[in-house]
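Task 17 of the worksheet. Students: predict the tertiary structure of the chain below and write it out as structure tokens. Keep your answer in the requested format; marks are given for formatting as well as content.
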Amino acid sequence: MPLVNMKELLAKADDSFAVGAFNVSDMEMAMGAIRAAEEMEAPLILQIAEGRLRYSPLELLGPVMIAAARECKMPTAVHLDHGRTLETVRLALKLGFTSVMFDGSHFPMAENIVKTREVVALARKFGASVEGEIGSIGGAEGDMALADIKVTSVAEAQRFATETKVDALAVAIGTAHGNYKETPNLRIDRLKEIHAALTTPLVLHGGTGLTADDFHNCLANGITKINIATASYDSSAAKIKEVHQLKPEANYFDFSDAISVGTYENVKKHMEIFGLRGKARLYL
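Model answer:
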């Protein structure tokens, strides 16, 4: 199936399902995610964050992700997650990514708007969609610095969406990247207010560690895209350890399979929670 634009996937999401965006760092993870999407008959977003590029250079992994998406039988978008520089965004677009995120949340609002508008203008030339971010989603994304949570205000969301015309907006409602050290306090009340004020599709980052009820509450109140990264890395690592315990003589290919299976199991589990079973039919 041809690559699709992320904007197309999010346009059909409603309060019954949200599209899962799953970070991958190698071919095995991409294969596992695609296996899950095909079994679930679900739309898929494959993505990688700029903070992971030290381990998986974009010029090497990007073409693998594009090829994997084209081989997938389900509608699949390929997305740059947490792009921090125009150079990285431009490279992703040249490689064929159908969507990019520019994370300017660490800049003052006015500067974030100016930089995000520049990314939007560039992405339009490639026919790609753009995700922006305001507020501060806690934790650390890959090698990027640790951030405190700063909940997005309704006024900020309205201004940012109007002035940048992004296709999706990541908002901070109390989630954090990585594994939670304590139970997150999700501001569903703020999410409802932002959703009521905007028509822009809303994105939830920091999905690892949330409960099924948390996810259902979020997608019922305006979230159309949910990012999952750490949970897939943890699942793959756990599967490698399991293989080593059960088979001490395991070789490279046993561990390679373990990475794919670990990702597959985690992606499939979250797709089920997100209400994605059979939803690819909406796009076919």
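Marker's comment: Residues 252-273 form the longest helix (22 residues). The CA atoms of residues 106 and 204 lie 17 Å apart.
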